[in-house]
Structures are given as C-alpha cells and as structure tokens.
Amino acid sequence: MDNGYEKEQFTTISFKESVAKKFRIFSKKMGASNSMTLLMMLDFFEVNNLSPKESIGPTVHTLENLIKKRVSAVIAILRDMEKSQTKPTVAMMQSLFEEVTPAPKSKPLLVEKKRIKKVEKIRFREK
After folding, report:
1. How far apart (Å, rounded) are the C-alpha atoms in residues 28 and 10?
2. How many structural domains compose the chain?
3. For residue 52, what are the domain limits?
C-alpha cells in the first residue's frame, strides 16, 4: 500500500485507454502504485517549477559536452600560461637567488712567508 495514504479513499479520473496503458507501464517501471507515481510526477513539476507545456531546453547530454569543452579550453589556457609565463619567471628568480661562488684565483690570497735562517759567520775558529 501507499505509505501515509492508507486511510484515504480512491476516486476516479477518466483517461483515454492508450494514455492509461502508457501510464500503467510507466508506474511499473517506477516501482510504485499509480497514485504514488502520479504524486511523484506532480511533486517533481512543482519543486522544479516546470510546466509540461514548456520546453526544458538543451538536454543533459548536450550540456555535459558543452561543459567538457569549456573545461578543456580552460586547461589549455592554464598550460599555455605555465609554459610561457610561470616557468621562465621561476627560472629567473632561482638564478637571482642562487649563491654565487667566486671562481678560484690563480694566486692565493694569503701566502706564508718562508723565513731564511741567517747563518752566523764565525769569526774565530778553534784549532
């Protein structure tokens, strides 16, 4: 039975036979009684503020394809920005902040002086 509607009485609505058959098949697909299927349909139209007379517009499939194309375009733009702007800028910044080590000079800065011992001249020699 229909949950919450057990105590309500049935009423009749007249439908054309082909419409009634189509609706019953749809109700079986939905897995609900005819009353609950019709209630779900009405709720859907009210909640989404739709009218069966109006066209919904593009289908979900076409909208999905449009979104995929836009996302692909954004990804392409970001990749181009990374190649042309970000990577060269990072390389320049790294080269600026690298520690520059001076090249070794051929001449040492501090030279040790070698002291030469003076040889004292001996004035007198013993025999």
Report:
1. 19
2. 2
3. 1-56
Residue type at 91 in one-letter notation? A
| Same domain flag for 27 and 71 | no
Burial of residue 33, with CB atoms counted within 10 A of its CB: 0-12 exposed, 13-18 middle, 19 or more buried: middle
> What would the pLDDT profile of 57-98 be if each residue is shown by its tens digit?
666 777 888 899 999 999 999 999 888 888 888 888 888 887
Residues 66, 44: one domain?
A: no
| Chain-centre distance for alpha carbon 62 | 22
Angle made by CA atoms 34, 38, 39, in degrees to the nearest 5: 115
CA dist., res. 78 & res. 84, Å (int): 10
